[in-house]
């Protein structure tokens, strides 16, 4: 079992602590939180071993799970990597693209693996259809959340939209060509609602909307490609695949047939894969253990996360321009 430590015992940190303790892939060594008062409460309530010195925790572990605020990611991640420990770090990887590239270079130098917590890659609904998304040409995503003070230290693009940016980049095999975006601050000092139109060199267009001041929660994406429409509900963990194929000469009475102006007839049919329930956070952590043990590339690499951050920052830079 890999010895694991957690940096940060806030809301998400406590979830990671619980899952690492439950996992058969890891031995939870303990945790460190800069807020001593909070650390003592967590240690007392849940029985996890509290470290008062970060370096001591790092020294006792094979892997460190960083679940601290984004602004602190770079400095603590540097400590982990230079100590020769494998790094799991929550999204976004860092606050700036420059910081992310520096971490990537450090990880290569010290020969350690890094994985970033873009957890929607492990959403069972997305996993069920990701291999069916082939050369999408139009993508639409809505990620809406009720207001929560957590995460408002960064713009909504880095808090919420980056999930969809990463998912889009994972299925569009083309470079970003152009970005148009707008963002509005309503409650926070940084934008709370944003929309981005991302154009790729291959002609694909992704239209992404994110809000943290909505009346209800929604996390839906739709992928349109030649002869297929794929819908993913990340919140409800449901998916739908609608396909078209050339209509047979003699379709049955219940077949759904469309005919265009040129007389080409297509049959619509549903090809919905089974969604296998999972705990996405546990699966991403255990997939990292597999990458470490078997010397494989992590599912979400630091390079992929850095690119998602680069695109997210381009969205922010293009606000209302």
Based on the model shown, name its key terms.
14 strands, nine-stranded mixed β-sheet, alpha/beta, Dihydrodipicolinate Reductase, domain 2, 321 residues, Rossmann fold
Report on this structure.
38% of the residues are buried. The protein is built from nine helices and 14 strands. It is 33% helix and 28% strand. The strands form two sheets. The chain has a nine-stranded mixed beta sheet. A five-stranded parallel beta sheet has the order 2-1-3-4-5, with helices on both faces. The protein folds into two domains: 2-119 and 281-300, NAD(P)-binding Rossmann-like Domain (Rossmann fold), CATH 3.40.50; 121-276 and 310-317, 2-Layer Sandwich (Dihydrodipicolinate Reductase, domain 2). The N and C termini lie far apart (51 Å). By secondary structure, it is an alpha/beta fold. It is globular. It has helices at 11-22, 36-46, 54-60, 73-82, 97-110, 124-129, 156-171, 280-293, 302-317, and strands at residues 2-7, 26-32, 63-66, 86-90, 114-117, 138-144, 176-184, 193-200, 205-211, 218-225, 228-233, 238-246, 256-259, 265-270.
What order do the SSEs take from the amino end to the carboxyl end, as H and E? EHEHHEHEHEHEHEEEEEEEEHH
Principal-axes geometry comes out as globular
Strand order, sheet with most strands: 7-8-9-6-10-11-12-14-13
Portion in strands: 25-35%
Question: Which class of the largest domain in CATH terms?
Answer: Alpha Beta
What is the alpha-carbon Rg in Å? 22 Å
Question: Would you report the number of β strands?
Answer: 14
CATH-defined fold name of the largest domain: Dihydrodipicolinate Reductase, domain 2
**Average pLDDT for all residues:** 93
Helix content: 25-40%
CATH superfamily of the largest domain: Dihydrodipicolinate Reductase, domain 2
**Biggest beta sheet attributes:** 9 strands, mixed
If classified by CATH, what would the architecture of the largest domain be? 2-Layer Sandwich
Category from helices, strands and their pairing:
alpha/beta
Low-confidence stretches: none
Number of domains: 2
Query: How far apart are the first and last residues' alpha carbons, in Å?
Result: 51 Å
The number of distinct helices, counting runs of at least 4 residues, comes to 9
